Amino acid sequence: MTADIAPTELRAQIRSGKWTTPTSGAATGFLQANLVMLPRSLAFEFLLFCTRNPKPCPVLDVLAPGQTEPAIAPGADLTTDLPRYRLYRSGQLTDEVTDVRPFFTDDTVSFLLGCSFSFENAMLAAGLPVRNIAEDKNVSMYITNRTCRPAEPFEAPLVVTMRPMTPEQAIRAVQVTTRYHQTHGAPIHVGDPAELGIRDLNKPDFGDPVTIHPGEIPVFWACGVTSSLAVTAAKLDLVMTHAPGHMFVSDLRDEHMTIM
Amino acid sequence: MTADIAPTELRAQIRSGKWTTPTSGAATGFLQANLVMLPRSLAFEFLLFCTRNPKPCPVLDVLAPGQTEPAIAPGADLTTDLPRYRLYRSGQLTDEVTDVRPFFTDDTVSFLLGCSFSFENAMLAAGLPVRNIAEDKNVSMYITNRTCRPAEPFEAPLVVTMRPMTPEQAIRAVQVTTRYHQTHGAPIHVGDPAELGIRDLNKPDFGDPVTIHPGEIPVFWACGVTSSLAVTAAKLDLVMTHAPGHMFVSDLRDEHMTIM
Predict the structure, then answer these.
(1) What does the alpha-carbon distance between residue B80 and residue B99 come to, in Å, rounded to a whole number?
(2) Digit-coded pLDDT (tens) for A67-79
(3) Which chain A residues contact residue B259 at CB under 8 A?
């Protein structure tokens, strides 16, 4: 981890190829976002999918076709300012690249979706445990038995992140994260993993398992990976997203996206 | 005002032509919604306009092209279950009708947007004054000097409603309405009307003026009429909306749409 830097400086380093690693922990307090880029012909359907599933897919910004400069970061360029991108063709991951300019056209629409980094900072500030950060691991993610409201051709199961804590801490976590309604907001479940169809907390579908101490219960939040499953399941000719952990860093502070 | 009835019964009476008047005060506690119907070709742009302006245009539901049964009211039909509709052609109001089936096609997309009736009920329950209800008037609405974020071809000034109260009541009103983030949420301004470009509170652009008592200040909320200005300004061949006050009554309770 390097010393903290401003979002504009971080994006400049990414653009010049100097910064190539995940953005977790960088420019603390500034809103980071998931990126999805897809063709204009399916932009309505994808925006509809997000609108119908605001907990996993909170929309922070949508750009006009062919536009690359988001309102939440003037001067930024979404085709160059993320450290790493993934390209999916017909639903299959085919490439990881550091620059999507060769693939971006006047027809491409970019979506920026909220990310749990915002509320993790708030939980730390409130003295709550964030085990994945404490253990320097990727957060545990699970595919649940709950299905999102579809918007054809987009459909997906709900994916959740899990952070263990005591029941008393879970109550406080509900309060703290409720404010962050545009970055996943309050948990969607607390307690029994089986209720979500999760058989073994030690075997997450994505990310790493974390330690669960005696007296702790799992607390589950909706996860932005849901949107990745939706766009890959739709098997489009080409979809571009950020690579996991390599987010877009905006000029907005996390606080700008709170409900109160 | 008739005795209160259930949403399903109210919609049945509307559909049969028995109920033809505004829905204000009917089926208290159930979510009512603004309706906008427009062609598939501009559905993305309009959903984008709403996404970019969530305070005046909170999206409750969007239906697939040609669909008339919303998820928030199973069994309902949006083409028949509102007491009165308005038709705009090239931006001009041309008709008011009680049934839009003759104009609805497989290409028509329906949007349901949140309405301030939800938080007015909550304010009354909290003992706060809602002057327009107390004086049995339409709420005062004003076109402000603030512009919405456009999504071509949709653009509009922000329209606000105003309810007068004491400063102490205004503080409580902020708390009470914050919960209702999908039905306009917290106020956008309190105090000086000139800050919003409003020259005379006694001359609203829409609705009726209400009494402002000594010691009271105006409190302003974003208003769904903003979406009407946006769709008429776009001068589409045909747009259908509810007629003012003649809303769609859903099966969801107002409480379902609160943030906490």
Answers:
(1) 5
(2) 999 999 999 999 9
(3) 178, 181, 185, 259
Task: Say which range, A136-140, A248-252, B47-51, B100-104, has the weakest mean pLDDT.
Answer: A136-140
Beta carbons of B209 and B228 less than 8 angstroms apart: no
In this model, does residue B93 exceed pLDDT 60?
A: yes
Distance from A32 to chain B by nearest Cα, in Å?
A: 18
| Residue A1 pLDDT | 43
CATH classification number, B7-114+235-257, choose in 3.40.1640.10, 3.40.190.10, 3.30.1380.10, 3.90.190.10: 3.40.1640.10
Q: What is the pLDDT of residue B258?
A: 82
Tell the CATH superfamily of the A118-226 domain. Answer: PSTPO5379-like domain (3.30.2040.10)
Tell me what the mean pLDDT of segment B198-214 comes to.
97
CATH number (3.40.1640.10, 3.30.70.1060, 3.40.640.10, 3.90.980.10) of A7-116+235-257 reads 3.40.1640.10
Instruction: Show the tokens assigned to A204.
Output: 């997450």
Q: What are phi and psi of A140, to 5 degrees?
A: -75, 130
Closest CA to A139 of A106, A117, A162, A112: A162
Residue A207 has a pLDDT of 92
The third-level CATH classification (topology) of the domain covering B117-226 is: PSTPO5379-like fold (3.30.2040)
In terms of phi and psi (left: phi > 0; alpha: psi -120 to 50; beta: otherwise), the region of A125 is: alpha
pTM: 0.90
Q: For an interface test with B, which of A42, A46, A48, A111 has the most B Cβ atoms less than 10 Å from its Cβ?
A: A48
Q: Are A73 and A227 in contact (CB under 8 A)?
A: no
Instruction: Say yes or no for a CB contact (<8 Å) between B51 and A52.
Output: no
* Interface predicted TM-score (ipTM) of this complex, two decimals: 0.83
